[in-house]
Fold:
Amino acid sequence: MPEEIVEKYKIDIYGASASIKIISGKDFVTLYDLSLPFIETGTKALLAEIRERLITEISVTPKEIFDPKTIDILKEKFKVRIFKLLEQNIPHLTPENKMQLTAYLINETLGLGVLEFLFSDPFLEEVVVNSSKEPVWVYHKVHGWLKTNIVISDETQIANYASIIARRVGRQITTLDPLLDAHLVTGDRANATLFPISTRGNTITIRKFARKPWTVVDFVANNTMSSDVAALIWMTMQYEGNIIVSGGTATGKTSFLQTCLPFIQPNHRIISIEDTRELLLPEFLHWVPLTTREANPEGKGEITMLDLMVNSLRMRPDRIVVGEIRRQEQAEVLFEAMHTGHSVYSTLHADTAEQTIGRLVNPPINIPKNQLDAIDLLVVMFRDRRKRFRRIIEVSEIVPVGAEGVSAEVTLQPNALYRWRPVTDRLEEHKPSIKLFDRIGLYTGLGESEIKNDLKNKKKIIEWLVKNNTTDLNRIGKIIAQYYNNEDSVISAASKNSKPESVAGG
Structure:
């Protein structure tokens, strides 16, 4: 099979650029080719001397290295000094070569070497080192798993990188304690294992935190959900309904929550609870993000999801967002919050709406069936690994069936409002609402025709944003906030296809 360059692009780091090629038809897997200038052995030796001088001349505190607010200042300080040392030791360098060597020195001194280029690629979600015996692998947003042309020289270097990561979070990874699971201050999640626990060699897995968050416009534009479903979710959240998002691993559950949260009114207090900070909300929302904390090496200081959930109820929240329901105690607190007037949004591992209900009412979560009436919508996510896309495959209510008489067993089943059709790749209406619209009408006084007109207007606004490719999180949040302040002005702007900037204030 002949090789084919599927895609080419460049990435920049500290002013230096690197070329990326995605190449198919080689080694049975698609290749991620990172092209960097070749540095000769003599030059590398000289750079090693410059690096030693840098470490000696510039005093660095742990806070400067581990604090994302100060690390950029530190890197700029290194950059200025590196320029001077390069001019003294390697005169007549071109500006381009000077930037490349500067990036090399900063990466080697303050980072994880060549891996830093991979972290700078916005299209990569995961960077994986399996051992020094094979190339680094990456997970690309468009092309899936790719084998790179990068090989870490030896196991000692991988172990050193793992130790650097551990020190950044005040932890250590050693032969006696060979497992590391760390949440970095940048939002990235790092996992590392040492030989012989990982029998082929030392490993590092880094899941990158999305620097540009997903928005409802992205999800509608890439067909993950339809504008009809987006409007339904918006209305449910506006009127403080409770939503559970389920799906398998990496189906986009948290990303979906991310797209929905800007629908919340700006004067509502939001408390989010996560193991790893993944959510990003418009900067002007009343939002308090909380994250769990692992115990220190002495086994002290752990803050669990349950601790944060119980504490959140004392923080006068209007909305509570929980990363994932795993245990009965967590679910009990969550449903207690629903029944005491808080709007709750969370995720759960389950592949269908039926499985979601089954997981909630059976061990280990084991919530009484009558509690599930508090859930207004179930949203089920799906990931097609072969075609590499994610979709909402079902949006359902939970309704009781077959319960007659005092002793009759209550059976719960989903009423699917929308279902995804693989043939057309569309989310299509399936059944009319039995519960949601009645509940909204009960608490708002809206009639059926008014609810339908509300959905129509929300759909119009979303499609207007999609048409104008308005993917900036804060701009979308401001338009939705303006909708709550002056609904008619936003509907009018959408009808006239005015520039969204005119509504969002620039």
Summary: The chain has two domains: 4-207, 216-445. The two ends are 51 Å apart (CA to CA).
